[in-house]
């Protein structure tokens, strides 16, 4: 368990088991339940079958539910960069938030300020690549859309805790057709079984101002640059 500077309360959840993989990822979620006590109740209820390692309230209170060395049940059926047991490979952080079903809005500043040092400690302790700090929608595009298009990935990137959006993009579409784009999207890490959902998930993360599931030159250029930077070793 982490110290009091980062964690304000420990409320053990029975919903965990042993990991089958080393920790190489962090998955960010929103609870889509309010007040926070309702979300907490579900995450520690043995009949719910769900949990996370951490829950961060909108006021910035961090509650640890499952030890990091254990496998919490937060990602469900998911995949990222060939890993299909995301729960075994990841640490799950739930953000107290009404979600799209409850009146989607920006995340609270106090919550973000609590997330940053916690995530920084996790990333450092487990040597997690920035490219593997992802949203639930990234690992389960056909099922989930959280934490959503208003999550401040750009601010998190300023702290070096996730990949930033590429700044320099070549004009024009680097992919010959939609099929080439989808293969590149799979190479980057997304499950493309549901092609439209995968494109929407990519847009939600990398071009949140327009999420329409349509492949165009702008998201093609973003994906191409992300892959190019990875091949150059710039996205660790």
List keywords for this structure.
two-stranded antiparallel sheet, six-stranded mixed β-sheet, 236 residues, alpha/beta, 8 strands, 8 helices
List the helices and strands and how they pair.
Blueprint (H helix, E strand, L loop, with lengths): L8 E2 L5 E3 L6 E6 L5 H8 L10 E3 L5 E3 L5 E3 L13 H4 E6 L13 H18 L6 E3 H4 L13 H6 L19 H11 L6 H12 L10 H15 L5
Parallel strand pairs: 1-5, 3-7, 3-8, 4-7
Antiparallel strand pairs: 2-6, 4-5
Helix pairs in contact: 6-8
Strand neighbour order, sheet with most strands: 1-5-4-7-3-8
What is the number of E strands? 8
- Largest beta-sheet details: 6 strands, mixed
Helix and strand sequence? EEEHEEEHEHEHHHHH
Helix percent band: 25-40%
What would you report as the Rg, rounded to the nearest angstrom?
17 Å
In round numbers, the mean pLDDT is 95
- Helix segment tally: 8
SS-derived structural category: alpha/beta
Structure, explained:
By secondary structure, this protein is of the alpha/beta class. Helices cover 33% and strands 12% of the residues. The chain is built from eight helices and eight strands; from the N terminus they run βββαβββαβαβααααα. It has helices spanning 36-43, 86-89, 109-126, 136-139, 153-158, 178-188, 195-206, 217-231, and strands at 9-10, 16-18, 25-30, 54-56, 62-64, 70-72, 90-95, 133-135. A six-stranded mixed β-sheet has the order 1-5-4-7-3-8. Helix 6 packs across helix 8. It is globular.
């Amino acid at each position: 368990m982490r110290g009091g500077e980062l964690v304000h309360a420990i409320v053990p959840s029975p919903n965990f088991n042993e990991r089958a993989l080393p920790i190489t990822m962090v998955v960010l979620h929103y609870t889509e339940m309010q007040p926070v006590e309702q979300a907490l109740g579900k995450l520690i209820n043995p009949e719910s079958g769900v949990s996370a390692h951490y829950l961060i309230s909108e006021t910035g209170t961090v509650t640890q539910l499952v030890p990091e060395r254990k496998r919490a049940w937060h990602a469900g059926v998911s995949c990222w960069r060939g890993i299909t047991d995301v729960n075994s490979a990841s640490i799950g952080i739930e953000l107290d938030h009404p979600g799209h079903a409850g009146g989607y809005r920006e995340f609270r500043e106090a919550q973000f300020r609590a997330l940053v040092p916690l995530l920084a400690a996790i990333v450092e302790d487990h040597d997690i690549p920035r490219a593997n700090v992802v949203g639930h929608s990234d690992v389960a595009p056909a099922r989930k859309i959280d934490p959503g298009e208003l999550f401040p990935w750009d601010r998190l990137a300023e702290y070096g805790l996730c990949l930033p959006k590429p700044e320099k993009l070549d004009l024009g579409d680097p992919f010959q057709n939609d099929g080439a784009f989808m293969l590149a999207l799979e190479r980057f890490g997304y499950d493309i079984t549901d092609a439209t959902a995968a494109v929407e998930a990519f847009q939600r993360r990398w071009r949140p101002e327009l999420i329409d599931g349509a492949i165009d030159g702008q998201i093609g250029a973003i994906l191409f640059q992300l892959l190019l930077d990875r091949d150059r070793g710039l996205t660790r």
